[in-house]
Write a structure and sequence with these properties.
The complex is a heterotrimer. Chain A is an alpha+beta fold. Chain A contains 14 helices and 10 strands. The chains are: A alpha+beta, B alpha/beta, C alpha/beta.
Chain lengths: 364, 323, 201
């Protein structure tokens, strides 16, 4: 069983908004534990699915990872939910079973992987949940929504890092049935709710042509409880802003025009998405969590020079359609130019950092 | 949770009960007195049954309440001319024994959008319905069950359901005369009705034909596909061209697992036939490849020049792969 | 660029009799009467006798096919003066309908979308419904910023009556909302507007 390192200092005063002046920093350890998503110098969009088993002592050690930003991220979620009710959390009525499934999965995982911070005590269906990081000690009846102050999924995911989309299986496809998405990247939960797998992937270029979607769907439909899988995905964003939904696009899109080759190191953040997918046992639904990590290009250079070189090469060779889709057309060149100062062209290891012989943040 | 390595469950046989002349009901509890993984109605449990001819892997529908994680129940019909798994369950397994099983998986879930559920079942096919109607009953979803049995001696499970759910259950054949008529059951149903067939192939064919003639579309007709979508099958052997090693692939393991067990390495990621990582060239083949992946195109499959070792198998006298 | 590469348009069918159905329900609006006439022409007398038609004479383009529709010997023809009434009529018909019913929808994207919402609420699946778009290429658009629904949007860029932002219509459709998505057109650089164009379908 794993525990968070004794040294993890959970920060409480970070912000992810312009109003809060973006008070966000990663520690050196925080950077080096990231699930860095570039195994090769050339980035190829792929499914890169692998069994979600513990790997290394970084972000892939636990079923659901928490890190030094846990407390501030939960506070940010609370603020977003209060600022825009009915926009960031939604669940269709028939998803109640899946909500309980998800609560159980998150709480069991946290309690098992981080026993110093979380405890789950079960006496039949009478459960007690202790979250020492947020100062929560609640008792409730599993399966009885009346014993919780809000929906089970909202209750659980308000205490979890990352966002959670629950997909129900229907007519041989997967349909979005619920979501807690205060960190979503340029889509609308309200708009996408009820969409099928192919409909909500509609915007991704190339996926249809490559047959990737068909294979991904078949694979996901065969997922079984107890055998989770994971993949990593990434994008770039400007400022350490977690909430970049379609709804608030007028607030954040202008930031894209503020990047130049001088300030790209501080302004541009790599947004890593770790997606550990699970089949849920009672509802037969699939949860698609997106655990988002933000790290500035300058932080990569400072704490993980090998990764800074790798991302330089991957961005420089990136397909233009993907640049457009990921939304950084306007500052792609500036980011590449800034990074080029720190890339000596030395050969780098291939493979994800958690794989044997994969690319490590620093050293040879 | 009661789990051994590789996600297998350790189950203690708590009780064995003969419910008809051919059917035993087994109640399992966790071997370590913890709890069992929850499941959904329609799920099956793959039980590893020790027998004289080695371990049999049989899948049985779970019939206990999906909301009770303290025990699992399955019913096993003795098949004298089968592959031996059910015979071993009947003859060898005793109360107190510990068996290994996989984590429950569901290939036969109830529709979450149905406005009405109609179950049509026969014989031992009734087992998944136990858990399905329990789930619907707890949710307050409307359902009815029509169950055909061979005679009074075979009606015990049906009578249990009748006792629990009353008028929602109709038995046929228990009195030696009434007959289940699928056209009558399916006619005039409101939009959004879903039908579930749990019985022998003949019954499935009969209900599907009736439903089609009444204008039902396939999305509303459900029956169990008890095909194993994993990577198990008949044994075969494979030669790794680079080392010359000859590796036997047993029925219970995939080609990839057998190669790894023999101390060799193949690339892999998803281990589910989807990602393409383990694609391997076939150099020689006397026989056919049983492609089970979602990766290779139809033309790739036809040429038999490529195989996905994580899920696919071969029926062959010789298979040499470029590894 | 905010919108390149996005493609998730609904895919429409062509109305033809679904022989597997025992009963047929056909609902159309305005120009949607034309595909409906074609559908009824293709039906056998038995199919016509098992068909109920709902027709709304409300039309964006002023097309009316009521006279043609009255020529067919269907079981029942119900006429409505507004699309909203026709959708309510459809709801009442589906409430009593049985398994084996086939539904045919034609008209504007907005009419088809709102009718599909009703059909879905009765558990109808895609195998039981055919949809054919007819007449105007106008779209129903949901504003991502204020939630306002704009009917009959004909141009790629328009001003949202709800929040007065200039919106660009993405080719991204939500069946649940029965609408396309509209987002701020000059999101990255205020005043830098994309080319406006007539929406194609």
């Amino acid at each position: 069983m794993t525990t968070a390192p004794e040294t993890t200092a959970f920060k409480t005063n970070e912000t992810y908004t312009p109003e809060g002046d973006y008070q966000f920093r990663n520690s050196a350890e925080g950077v080096r534990r990231l699930p860095f998503p570039f195994p090769d110098d050339d980035y190829m969009y792929s499914m890169n699915l692998e069994p979600h088993v513990p790997a290394g002592d970084g972000a892939l050690r636990a079923a659901f990872d928490i890190d030094e930003h846990y407390v501030s991220e939960c506070a940010h979620r609370d603020q977003m939910l209060r600022d825009m009710p009915g926009v960031h959390y939604l669940a269709l009525p028939h998803m109640m079973e899946a909500q309980w499934d998800l609560l159980e999965l998150i709480f069991e995982s946290y309690a098992r992987d981080f026993p110093e911070q979380f405890t789950l005590t079960k006496n039949g269906n009478e459960w007690r949940w202790q979250n020492r990081l947020l100062g929560i000690d609640d008792s409730f009846t599993f399966g009885d929504p009346a014993t919780l102050p809000m929906d089970p999924m909202e209750y659980a995911t308000r205490q979890a890092q990352g966002e959670f989309v629950v997909l129900e299986e229907k007519d041989n496809t997967l349909v979005i049935g619920a979501g807690m998405t205060t960190q979503r990247a340029d889509y609308s939960l309200k708009f996408n709710l009820g969409m099928s797998f192919f409909e909500f992937h509609g915007p991704v270029p190339k996926l249809h042509d490559m047959g990737i979607l068909d294979r991904a769907l078949k694979f996901l439909l065969r997922m079984k409880p107890g055998h989770p899988v994971r993949r990593v995905n990434w994008s770039l964003t400007v400022n350490p802003r977690l909430e970049t939904s379609v709804e608030t696009l007028p607030e954040w899109a202008p930031d894209r025009a503020t990047v130049d080759s001088e300030n790209a190191g501080e302004k541009v953040y790599l947004r890593i998405e770790l997606q550990p997918l699970h089949r849920l046992p009672r509802s037969n639904a699939i949860v698609f969590p997106v655990r988002t990590y933000l790290v500035s290009l300058a932080e990569l250079v400072q704490h993980a020079p090998n990764w800074a070189k790798r991302i330089h090469r991957a961005l420089a060779s990136l397909d233009h359609e993907l640049v457009d889709y990921k939304g950084f057309h306007r500052y792609h060149a500036a980011a590449v130019e800034w990074l080029s100062q720190y890339d000596d062209g030395a050969p780098l290891a291939t493979g994800y950092p958690w794989a044997p012989d994969g690319i490590q943040p620093n050293g040879q | 949770m009661s789990e051994s390595q590789h996600g297998a469950l350790k189950l203690r046989v708590k009780s064995i009960e003969a419910v008809t002349p051919e059917i035993n009901r087994y109640t399992f509890c966790p071997a370590d007195d913890s709890w069992l993984p929850p499941f959904s109605g329609g799920s099956h449990l793959t039980v590893l049954i020790p027998s004289e001819e080695g371990t049999k892997r049989n899948a049985y529908s779970l019939m206990s309440s999906p909301y009770d994680t303290s025990q699992y129940q399955i019913a096993v019909r003795r098949v004298d001319d089968g592959k031996g798994g059910s015979l071993a369950m009947h003859n060898n397994v005793r109360e107190g024994d510990v068996l290994l099983a996989g984590i429950p998986a569901n290939l036969f879930p109830v529709s979450k959008h149905a406005r009405h559920h109609v179950f049509i079942a026969g014989g031992v096919g009734i087992t998944p319905v136990f858990a399905q109607v329990e789930e619907l009953s707890l949710k307050g979803s409307p359902f009815e069950l029509h169950l055909a049995v061979r005679g009074p001696d075979h009606a015990a499970l049906g009578c249990e359901l009748k006792e629990r759910f009353g008028d929602q259950v109709t038995l046929y054949g228990h009195d030696g005369q009434s007959r289940l008529n699928t056209m009558e059951i399916l006619a005039g149903r409101p939009l959004g009705t879903h039908a579930y067939i749990c019985g022998p192939t003949r019954m499935i064919d009969d209900v599907v034909t009736s439903a089609h003639s009444l204008g039902w579309s396939d999305a509303n007709i459900h029956f169990e596909r008890f095909e194993d979508l994993g990577s198990t099958g008949d044994p075969f052997s494979v030669t790794l061209a680079r080392s010359g090693a000859v590796i036997e692939v047993s029925p219970e393991q995939s080609l990839l697992e057998a190669v790894e067990e023999a101390g060799h390495k193949l690339p892999y990621l998803c281990r589910g036939g989807a990602c393409g990582e383990c694609e391997t060239e076939v150099l020689e083949l006397d026989g056919t490849i049983d492609h089970r992946d979602d990766w290779l195109s139809e033309s790739d499959r036809a040429t038999c020049k490529l195989i996905m070792p994580c899920v696919s198998r071969a029926t062959c006298t010789k298979l040499v792969i470029n590894a | 660029m905010l919108i390149t590469g996005i493609k998730s348009r609904p895919v429409y069918d062509e109305l033809t009799p679904m022989a597997s159905g025992l009963n047929h329900l056909a609902a159309a609006q305005g120009s949607g009467g034309k595909p409906l006439v074609r559908l009824l022409q293709a039906m056998t007398p038995d199919q016509l006798a098992a068909t109920d038609v709902l027709y709304s004479t409300e039309s964006f383009t002023g097309q009316n096919y009521l006279a043609e529709l009255q020529q067919f010997k269907v079981r029942n023809l119900a006429v409505f003066t507004t699309n909203a009434d026709a959708v309510r009529g459809l709801d009442a018909s589906l409430a009593d309908a049985k398994m084996g019913t086939r539904l045919y929808l034609s008209g504007s994207e907005g009419f088809i979308g709102t009718s599909m919402q009703v059909a879905t609420s009765y558990g109808m699946n895609r195998d039981e419904v055919l949809r054919e778009q007819a007449g105007s290429s106008a779209r129903r658009v949901w504003c991502a910023h204020c939630g306002h629904y704009s009917e009959n949007v004909t141009h790629r860029v328009f001003t949202c009556p709800g929040c007065e932002l200039n919106l660009i219509v993405r080719d991204h459709y939500s069946g649940r909302l029965a609408a396309f998505q509209g987002v701020k057109a000059d999101g990255e650089v205020p005043g830098e507007m994309p080319d406006n164009e007539e929406l194609d379908t």
